[in-house]
Fold:
Amino acid sequence: MFLKKDSRGYYKLFEWQDGKQRYVKYIGKDPSSFLKDIEKGKELLEKLKDYPDLALKGGQAALTEHKRRKTGKVKVIEQKYRTIVIDPPWPMEKIVRQVRPNQFDFDYPVMSIEEIKTYSLPVNPDGCHVYLWTTQKFLPVAFDVFEAWGVKYECLMTWVKNVGFTPFSWMYSTEHCLFGRVGNLPLLKLGKRLDFSAKVREHSRKPNEFYTLVAEVSPEPRIDIFSREKHEGYDQDGNEPDKFTVK
Ligand SMILES: C[S@@+](CC[C@H](N)C(=O)[O-])C[C@H]1O[C@@H](n2cnc3c(N)ncnc32)[C@H](O)[C@@H]1O
Structure:
């Protein structure tokens, strides 16, 4: 392909086909953004050679994910799972820090929304159940994250807590987890309730009752991503897998 400038100074894109020049599209007076796109396209194709699965993501998302993999910031999980529990380090609300200034457990590295959206979920493409924990603030974003991951939203689980905190508004006494599917993998057990009650422990630590419930409904192999303790029947991934593991 090549650019040609016409007598009025407008650029047009042509390609060679069967020895003849064929008009492809109009570019305009300033070809710089078009040329930048071409460079980006070339860069992308080069990078996708190493990671063919990124081709499904396309564009900027693929480039961001590629960069993260190259820098080793997040390791890629090779095995594919039927059940994924994922509790991302959402870019946490400032207000939580103010209301809970002494909660030291809060201090873990967080990820940007873009990083969460481009995270490579180790789904079994033939069918997978995905459980995504979110916070009150990031609940709407969590639906976009499901869409970016190609997960079909189905329903919302609610953890009813014994205590809550009051960030100058309602008492936040619940926490929520989206359930969705890739494909149509059936549930092992039908009719389980979406709400469950359990005690609050350390900041962000999810209750054992949740893991038991998920194991009743969703098949192995299972993985708990961004995990901080070992749960029976789940593989783990995260940078502090044994923070709460009882040895
Ligand atoms: C919301 S907490 C998970 C809480 C956990 N589900 C529990 O019940 O205790 C998020 C975790 O992700 C970890 N994390 C943050 N960035 C990470 C990264 N790039 N790679 C791996 N783990 C990361 C944090 O250190 C933290 O342990």
Remarks:
- The pocket of S-adenosylmethionine is lined by residues 73-74, 87, 89, 108-109, 111, 204-206, 226-228, 238-240 (CB under 6 Å).
- The beta strands are 2-5, 11-17, 20-28, 83-86, 128-134, 152-165, 172-182, 195-198, 222-225, 235-237.
- Residues 83-237 form a domain with the Rossmann fold fold (CATH 3.40.50.150).
- The two ends are 63 Å apart (CA to CA).
